[in-house]
């Protein structure tokens, strides 16, 4: 059975010719803008050490992220660093509260002389005497 006349014309419809001009490429998205571009809320080119807008305006170009790192990734990394430091200082406090007074004073002297908190906590936390390091 043939198609009705109002539908037959649609079946023979030809699509328009394909575009001969290639589509425009989108600009490559950068991971994180520099602080000057973020503050001015403008498009940053992401070049390091200085992006194009900062070079053009003569601004100091400062990035608070590592290359190929987003601001969220940088914040998460910084949060991890702070969490580790907090844990170390909690361990140090626990040692001061539980060690005998003489050992706690020796540990304080070592801290004041420049010994790192991590090295003291790890050394004393392993059960070694404070005076042995």
From TrEMBL:
<protein>
    <recommendedName>
        <fullName>Zn(2)-C6 fungal-type domain-containing protein</fullName>
    </recommendedName>
</protein>
<keyword id="KW-0539">Nucleus</keyword>
<feature type="domain" description="Zn(2)-C6 fungal-type">
    <location>
        <begin position="33"/>
        <end position="63"/>
    </location>
</feature>
<dbReference type="Pfam" id="PF00172">
    <property type="entry name" value="Zn_clus"/>
</dbReference>
<dbReference type="InterPro" id="IPR001138">
    <property type="entry name" value="Zn2Cys6_DnaBD"/>
</dbReference>
<dbReference type="GO" id="GO:0008270">
    <property type="term" value="F:zinc ion binding"/>
</dbReference>
<dbReference type="GO" id="GO:0000981">
    <property type="term" value="F:DNA-binding transcription factor activity, RNA polymerase II-specific"/>
</dbReference>
<dbReference type="InterPro" id="IPR053187">
    <property type="entry name" value="Notoamide_regulator"/>
</dbReference>
<dbReference type="InterPro" id="IPR036864">
    <property type="entry name" value="Zn2-C6_fun-type_DNA-bd_sf"/>
</dbReference>
């Amino acid at each position: 059975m043939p198609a009705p006349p109002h539908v037959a014309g649609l079946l023979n419809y030809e699509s328009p010719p394909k575009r001969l001009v290639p589509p425009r490429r989108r600009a490559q998205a950068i991971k994180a803008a520099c602080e000057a571009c973020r503050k001015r809320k403008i498009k940053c080119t992401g070049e390091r050490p200085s992006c194009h807008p900062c070079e053009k305006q003569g601004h100091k170009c400062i990035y608070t992220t590592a290359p190929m790192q987003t601001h969220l990734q940088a914040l998460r990394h910084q949060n991890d660093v702070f969490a580790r430091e907090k844990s170390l200082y909690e361990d140090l406090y626990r040692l001061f509260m539980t060690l005998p007074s003489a050992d706690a004073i020796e540990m304080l002297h070592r801290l004041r002389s420049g010994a790192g908190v991590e090295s003291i906590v790890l050394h004393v936390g392993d059960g070694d005497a404070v005076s042995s390091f």
